[in-house]
Amino acid sequence: MQELPPTRKLTIVAKDPGLRLGGDDGPMAFVQVDLPAERLSWGPTGYRIKVVDYNATEQRLYFAEQVYEDRRGNLIDPFAPARGETLFDKAYQQRLLEDPNFHSQNAYAIAMRTLGLFERALGRRVAWSSGGHQLHIAPHAFAQANAFYSEPDRALLFGYFHDLSDEPVFTCLSHDIVAHETTHALLDGLRSRFTEPSGPDQAAFHEGFADVIALLSIFSLEPVVAAAIGQDGQLIKDDQTIALVDGAKLSPGAIKASILLGLAQEAGTALGDGRRTALRQSVEMTPKKAKALRDGRDEHDRGEVFVAAMMTVFVQLWSNRVALLGTFGKDQYNLGSVVEEGAKVAGHLLNMSIRALDYCPPTDIDFGQYLAALLTADRELVPDDAHHYRRDLVNVFRDYGITVPAGTCDADGCWPRYPHLGKLVYSRSNFAAMMRSRDEFFRFLWENRDDDRLNISERAYTEVLSIASASRIGPDGIALDETVCQYVQRFDMFGAEFKALLGAERPGGLSTTDGYTAYGGGVVILDQYGQVKYHIANRLLDPARQLARAEYLVDMGLIGVADEPDRLRFAMAHFVRMGA
After folding, report:
1. Higher per-residue confidence, 299 vs 72
2. Nearest CA to 160 among 56, 78, 273?
3. Distance from first CA to last CA of the chain, Å, rounded?
4. 465 in Cβ contact with 487 (< 8 Å)
5. How far apart are CA 500 and CA 521, in angstroms?
6. Mind listing the pLDDT tens digit for each residue in 441-494?
């Protein structure tokens, strides 16, 4: 049998079908991306992704007709340009767009690429929340302007619709949309309780985080970014041709308005009113407008604020690095260097954003806590903030009304190290077993439940959700090894028990006979020696937090909403955003 290489190449639509190179009549941006090499079955189907192309609206199954190996067992890209063609030939591109099997490959490849980003950043394999090994993808699931992740179906479901010219628009062809939906599935696997009814920030975090990952991930495709920015001249120096770009294109305002920071260009144009070109261009939101949205409780608006803050940091850091480059002639820059600096900034922010999830409490997340996690994750791996990533994050997030939790972070805005090491009891737990057994780790929690140790309520139902080992390499080449352990606690009660169990007055709108569930929980980070490094928790017995959460649920009509996964949660949220 032919030995597999470490990676393989597959063709995808880069960014979005709405990205046209060289003007509206130019070709679309197609690119071949590197993915982990695996022997694919029909679909394509691999060890983590299974594409099932069934159209429920038409009750039609699109048969997979592509093979991904030649007769000698070599891995091939069935949609690579034929001899004499290039990725930018319009006839070639049109042929692929008309082939449903290419749509399947596009969705598979982008989902696998997004999975790879998470696993490289976290230093470990990432599980789907469903518990299964494979996530299903339906590229043409239904005739509707929507796409969503469904945990009960273990699937990403992509719709299609027709624009005003009766041309079909397939959401599975948008890199932005596929990466966004895959991020929902990955985030659900890493923090499964983030989909439960909670405060307004938790409801918004899933959407905002998925947008950020989708937007930043495109910048590693440097040829596509260069083509999207456009060349404004060239210089021949030492027998080398240097592509040049005008500085006017690189101002913060110009970058914010570019297609590179707009989400889902084709879908936005097709659904728009003639003024909108991208589905969302959150980065253009001003801090003044963000404040008004933060004062409200709409989860979609709050999600946009989070995206605006993150992407404004990206634009600011990229602009700062471009300003350090030398210029050629009258305010022109080396296009290759500009794109390279953008890729560096996006890559670092992307890794920071994903790694921060390990330092987030498993329940009732808010944006301030995520900011603290973001800063902590970066400082652990990169102690020297030489490029001012953390400084700019703190300043820009503050402009958008997001600050780290008061009184619980250190001077740098990071979570403090666990302070009571000498009081913890390790002798009754087996360290080797504790690194892999949830039962053994629960024993460690139970032995250290006292207020002056881990301060975990012994009356609540407590469950260890996951134990995950992570190994990351810092810029100095030194490995950072940690074990990330999540636990949750809950009280299932009636409204009449609210004050007795939680220590806060029962909010108006919660009757004595209403069923109510209060949550708490934390993440315990162990160092390479098995010692507690961080205990980051939203404690169950926190009256102020529990009252604020209950009041929000009452206001939003969410009292009594079941805890089990809602098949339509993301479907309805995305349907609203598509039509917004």
Report:
1. 72
2. 56
3. 53
4. yes
5. 20
6. 999 999 999 988 999 999 999 999 999 998 888 777 778 899 999 999 999 999
| 320, containing H or E segment | helix 299-323
Instruction: Give which of 40, 65, 53, 44 is closest to 138, Cα–Cα.
Output: 53
CA-based diameter of the chain, in Å? Answer: 81
Mean pLDDT rounded to a whole number for the chain: 89
Confidence at residue 275, expressed as pLDDT on a 0 to 100 scale? 46
463 has which bridge partners?
488
Residues 128-158: tens digit of each pLDDT:
988 889 999 999 999 999 999 998 899 999 9
Is the separation of the CB atoms in 176 and 264 below 8 Å? yes
Question: What are the φ/ψ torsions at residue 388 (nearest 5 degrees)?
Answer: 65, 30
**How would residue 392 be classed by pLDDT, with cut points 50, 70 and 90?**
very high
Q: Give the C-alpha separation, 177 to 163, whole Å.
A: 17
Exposed, middle or buried: residue 426 (CB in 10 Å: 0-12, 13-18, 19+)? middle
Residues 49 and 111 sit within 8 Å (Cβ to Cβ): yes
Q: What's the rounded Cα separation, in Å, for the pair 16 and 263?
A: 9
pTM to 2 decimals? 0.93
Predicted pLDDT of residue 430: 80
Model confidence over 198-219: pLDDT tens digits? Answer: 888 998 999 999 999 999 999 9
What percent of the chain is modeled with pLDDT above 90?
66
Q: What is the DSSP string of 28-95?
A: B-EEEEEEE----BTTTB-SSEEE--EETTTTEE------SB-TTS-B--TTSPPTT--TT-HHHHHH
CA dist 143 and 158 (Å) reads 9
Cβ-proximal residues to 299 (8 Å cutoff; 6+ apart), any chain: 200, 203, 204, 207, 573
For the beta carbon of residue 55, count every other beta carbon within 10 angstroms.
Answer: 18
Cis amide prior to 565 (ω within 30 degrees): no
